Amino acid sequence: MTTWFGSFSALLGAAIVLAAGCGNTNNNVTASEGGSDSDATAGPTSAATDGTTTASGSDSDSGETDGTGSASMTSLPTTGEPTSTSNGSATSSTTDPDTTSTTSPVTDGSATDPDTATTIEPGTTTEPGTTTMGESTTTGPDCIPAEEVCNDLDDDCNGVVDDVDVGGDGICDCLNIAIFGNEGANPSAEFQAWLEAQGTQVDRISLDATPIDAVTLEKYDIVILDWLVRTYSADEAAIIKTWIEGGGGLMSMTGHTNNNTVVERPNSIIAPMGLAYNQSKGFFSGPVTQWAMHPITQGITSVSFYGGLYVDITEDGVAVNEVIGTLPQGPVAVGQTRIDGKLFIFGDEWIEFDSEWQQIPQIKQFWVNILGWLSPQNYCTIPQ
């Protein structure tokens, strides 16, 4: 009796062991991920018949969807071979009671970002300032120097955006300049042609009563007031002031004709910022040879001045004004730094005429200095 019961127990134990060993015999692997803090449970969540991995769950990472598994988690390697243990049993995931399931790494080097559920290719970083394969787009520790081009980016990583000067003339090739009003009474084609030849974009606008608005101004880095065709409203002046304070640069000329229009029209723009042309001493001539130390006056000893005006300065507590050039009648060249922008007010217009460009070499250098100083800070500035 004792012998029979012992044999029966042995047979029963063998049957139990044999039943426990039965299972998937074709190396198929299934995995279930429920997203809770419990152990992962192997089971027939979705069928697998070719050695691939499938997964499901509400709290899973987004992953590869290249046919090796479902899109609810990162796929196993695409070889079709499961990860095996030394005893031949198949395993594809490990589970920590305090974490969600993890899978074998993807063999192509890509990874998934659990916050964005998008695939990140090798070499890509989500840090600001870089793009795919580590190519730099902005200044920073990850910036990779490249040839600087006009694209609103600091390609060469020197801290200045679009500082391109192919011709080496000191004029940034990426500047966008608007000239308000008509050309002066004398020919000045050489001046504008010279600007355009440097690669600078130049538009002559405000030739009629069309109002100036912020949308128009945001296209430009520098505005030059030439022979204005009208006065400007208080609203337009306020828009221009805001544009300057935000980083724009404005230059004004006058003296195009001997009447009050060359006073009233530019003053309608610049007077709200504490600078104004004054006709009380009439129109007078130079040249201007008395200069203060300033970036605009570097290399300058004499500049033409025929039938111009002097400039009144009213301190408003916001701007910093500097008298740059002087004649006996008063200041004729004034620079103003206004928050993030700048103004340069000159009391004459002969510096744009072809006759001066052809006869006085310093006129060109004068313009190079003016545009360089007016250029927005850290943008399109050529090192001197």
UniProtKB/TrEMBL annotation:
SUPFAM superfamilies: Class I glutamine amidotransferase-like. InterPro entries: Class_I_gatase-like. This is Uncharacterized protein. Residues 1-19 form the signal peptide. Residues 73-82 have a biased composition (Polar residues). Residues 32-140 are annotated as: Disordered. It comes from Nannocystis pusilla. It comes from the Bacteria. Residues 37-72, 83-108, 116-140 have a biased composition (Low complexity). The keyword Protein biosynthesis does not apply.
